[in-house]
Amino acid sequence: MERGSHGLHDTAGEVSPLMIYRYLRYLAVINVTTILLGILFYGEKFDFWSFAISYLGGTVTPSGKPNLVSFLIFTGGMIICSLTCFRISLLWKGAISLPNRSLNRVIFEVCGIGYILMLMPHNIFDPLHMIGAGLVFSSFWLFCIITLHRMRDSIGTWRFFLYHLILQGTVLPYAFLFFIGSGIKQNMQKFAVTGLVIVMVAISRMYLLHHCEPARMTFPAGPGR
Questions:
Q1: Mean pLDDT, the chain, as a whole number?
Q2: Which of 66, 217, 76, 111 is closest to 154 using CA atoms?
Q3: How far apart are CA 181 and CA 99, in angstroms?
Q4: pTM of the complete model
Q5: Residue 191's Cα: distance from chain center in Å?
Q6: Rounded distance between C-alpha atoms, residue 170 and residue 58, angstroms
Q7: Of the ranges 88-92, 189-193, 204-208, which one carries the lowest mean pLDDT score?
Q8: Could you tell me which of 97, 62, 95, 57 has the C-alpha nearest to residue 78?
């Protein structure tokens, strides 16, 4: 491997899978940090279980109080996340040896567009904001599913189903509750975000480092192998 001016590349100039993993990890950290800082500087006490994460990007709180600091934090976070997604998309284009690179490139382009739409404050442009959130959620969810199935033989049956349980057991119930307008959808939203981040970071690490150093990356066999 050689370290170029823009990160790690192999000797043929191909983008290293390690570089893609690092940007995916950055993306997860940026998301979590944005949420935590937004809660900390919210215009009123943030009701974690009742308030949607989108409230952090509102110009005012539900009770009408100004929410400037949290709004700016959320806006900055969405901009950085969008740029990171577009960067990841370009990296997938250069990762010639990786499977599904064209599809993953499109997934992260769509995700980047979703983050741009999420810049719209939910209390002013709610339809656009919600479309953006849907694009982000569905992009990460699809990436996780594709990567899980690609890694099934490497990670073993028990780990494959465990990650699916975490992913589908949090994201799908939230999607259903959101669709029917349930009053507990915001409770489930927090579990969905957590499950999505955990699975995305874990499986992308195994998948990309496996392709980066196939001779060194081994996974212990589980009871299903």
A1: 86
A2: 217
A3: 38
A4: 0.85
A5: 14
A6: 25
A7: 204-208
A8: 57
Task: Compute the half-sphere exposure of residue 85: CA atoms within 13 Å on the CB side of its CA.
Answer: 25
Retrieve residue 167's tokens.
């992913």
* Tokens at 170, concatenated: 């949090």
DSSP state of 5: T
Cα(112)–Cα(139) distance, integer angstroms = 9
Compute the distance between CA of residue 105 and CA of residue 111 in angstroms, rounded to an integer: 10
Q: Which residue has the tokens 């939910």?
A: 122
Task: Give CA 10 to chain center in angstroms.
Answer: 26
CA end-to-end span of the chain: 33
Could you report the per-residue pLDDT of 106-144, keeping only the tens digit for each?
999 999 999 999 999 999 998 999 999 999 999 999 999
The residue assigned the tokens 């975490």 is 166
Task: Give the Cα separation of 7 and 25 in Å (integer).
Answer: 15
Q: Can you read off the two tokens belonging to residue 191?
A: 């579990």
Query: How far is it, in rounded angstroms, from Cα 82 to Cα 18?
Result: 20
Instruction: Please give the Cα distance from 73 to 88 (Å, whole number).
Output: 22
What does each C-alpha distance from 142 to 12, 88, 107 come to in angstroms?
A: 30, 15, 8
Tokens of 148: 């899980």
Q: Which helix (H) or strand (E) holds 9?
A: strand 7-9
pLDDT > 70? residue 215: no
Q: How far apart are CA 27 and CA 23, in angstroms?
A: 6
